[in-house]
Amino acid sequence: MTLTVQPHRESLGLKTGQLYIDGQWGPAKDGATWTHQHPATGEAVGDFAVAGVADVDSAVAAARRAFESGKWSNSRAGVRISVLHRYANLLREHADELRGLQALDNSVPVSFGSIYATSVGAAADVFDHHAGWVDKVGGQTLPPYQGGDHLAMSFREPIGVVAAILPWNAPFLLFAQKVAPALAAGCTIVLKPSEYATFSVLRMVELLIEAGLPEGTLNVVTGPGDPVGEALITHPDVDKVSFTGSRAIGKRIVEASAGTLKRVSLELGGKSPALVFADAPNIGLAAATVVGAVTMGLSGQACVANTRALVHRDVYDEFLAAAQGMAAGVTYGDPFDPGVISSPLINERQLERVLGYIERGKAEGARLVTGGERLGGELASGNFVGPTIFADVENSSTIAQEEIFGPVLAVVPFSDEDEAIRLANDTEYGLGAGLFTSDVQRAFRVSRRLRVGTIGINGFQIEPHLPFGGFKQSGLGREGGQSAFEAYTELKTVMMPLTDEMM
Ligand code: NAD
């Protein structure tokens, strides 16, 4: 039987070929479009508009006008709060539809789309969470340092026009992590979804309009990194770029921001370790957690997946056996089939890249214990690679150092705690880490020494109110919680003598 997503495409409907600028849907000025090919079937899903430089100019100008008008940035807090809450509820009402659109976009199975971290419900909670900051984050009133009758205050003001650039792998959550704090702070936005997850984001935008967002406050330019993303990150009238994606593009954004010293927030890649100590409460569960994150759901195309398992030699064989057992249970296919729990790679370029890393792993002497191949049969027209586990990996080797963004786990043995910490930190990335131990003191001792932004001790979950982001080359700044809201504000200091003598 040949896989097809065509019936779902017809029943869900798609917003095709449209940008959203200054409150109007319309095609790109030069009529350019992109045809999205489904990663599981290779079918043409639909066409969307490719914005040109002139469209990006119009979108930025609309966002600037909306910002200067104050219709959102200076509106009553109650108005902003109620729009954000109304939107959160609309998202929840449309969760099934959005999950289906995501399956058409990136082939993330509907079964995984229900798991909290990547769900529409989590995105809705992020909007509810940030609605709560609208009337709570302010500046300070401080006593005058030099004494006397002098008023000294600081204010937080919206940063201005934000370019929000999304990756394809978790469009609901990442849309929310950028758009919610930016809107709560009073910014206006030009949003660029990934060219590999556009249709679900366009529907999210339609719902935001329905929730009552004023025209020009959010503008959407669709299309690939070049020309659309480049035009945005180099645009002189963009005040801040908020980006989630690869390290290479993150570096390009830092370069491009220099021209006008744009504010920049970057959520980039990782090579996050899981440290499995011999005293882990349950080695089988630790292996299942690690292998599940690397092979199920997004098929390892997740920034924070623990793609390096550092395992104590005493439990190494037990871990590997359990890891192989877990890998054997991963299912692929039609993303609308509730029995399917994993995804294909997003495109052919990524398929070739992952297969190239697998060959590199073998060539560098790692022991392939399972997988390592493209899947065939009825999956042959998709970009599927099965769960792949390499054992006896040198931490300095390519597959232990570079972000593969595929279902490839590198297992590295260690002998003691110091070695585990040294190996864990021996990477240019610093996004996350998992610890598996029953020793509470060890858990915190090791956590303090790891150079990463987020640590899960015997488990991990994404929460809307917690900061999330990376040390080292995994990013700049944090999403989630108060720090995210503040990242869309500028601090302004205002002072005033209270008597004429002080002037
Ligand atoms: P990507 O860097 O290829 O693309 C991300 C976005 O940038 C897309 O919208 C793309 O069109 C755009 N882009 C590409 N070139 C551009 C340019 N020159 N200027 C401006 N924009 C440009 O990444 P991807 O494949 O979509 O996502 C995978 C990457 O994202 C991985 O590295 C992953 O680790 C990272 N990621 C990080 C987090 C996090 O929170 N830290 C979350 C999800 C994904």
Write the layout of secondary structure elements.
Elements: H1 6-12, E1 19-21, E2 24-26, E3 33-37, E4 44-49, H2 53-69, H3 77-93, H4 95-105, H5 110-113, H6 120-131, E5 141-142, E6 150-158, E7 161-165, H7 171-185, E8 188-192, H8 199-210, E9 218-220, H9 225-233, E10 240-244, H10 247-257, E11 263-267, E12 273-276, H11 283-295, E13 308-312, H12 316-328, H13 348-363, E14 367-370, E15 388-391, H14 398-401, E16 408-414, H15 417-425, E17 432-436, H16 440-449, E18 454-457, E19 475-476, H17 481-486, E20 489-497
Parallel strand pairs: 7-8, 7-10, 8-9, 10-11, 12-13, 12-17, 13-16, 15-16, 17-18
Antiparallel strand pairs: 1-2, 3-4, 5-6, 6-20, 11-19, 14-15
Domain Aldehyde dehydrogenase: 32-494
Family: Belongs to the aldehyde dehydrogenase family.
Protein name: Aldehyde dehydrogenase (NAD+)
Describe the model:
One of its GO terms (molecular function) is oxidoreductase activity, acting on the aldehyde or oxo group of donors, NAD or NADP as acceptor. Keywords: Oxidoreductase. This is Aldehyde dehydrogenase (NAD+). Belongs to the aldehyde dehydrogenase family. This protein folds into two domains: 51-269 and 475-490, Aldehyde Dehydrogenase, Chain A, domain 1 (3-Layer(aba) Sandwich); 273-451, Aldehyde Dehydrogenase, Chain A, domain 2. The longest helix is centred in the N-terminal third of the chain and has 17 residues, at 53-69. Helix 2 (53-69) runs parallel beside helix 9. The chain has 503 residues and is an alpha/beta fold. The mean pLDDT is 96. The chain has 17 helices and 20 strands. The protein has a seven-stranded mixed beta sheet, sandwiched between helices. It has a six-stranded mixed beta sheet with strand order 9-8-7-10-11-19, sandwiched between helices. A three-stranded antiparallel beta sheet has the order 5-6-20, with no helix packed on it. Residues 165-170, 192, 194-195, 224-226, 229-230, 233, 244-246, 249, 252, 267-270, 303, 403, 405, 431, 475 line the site of nicotinamide-adenine-dinucleotide.
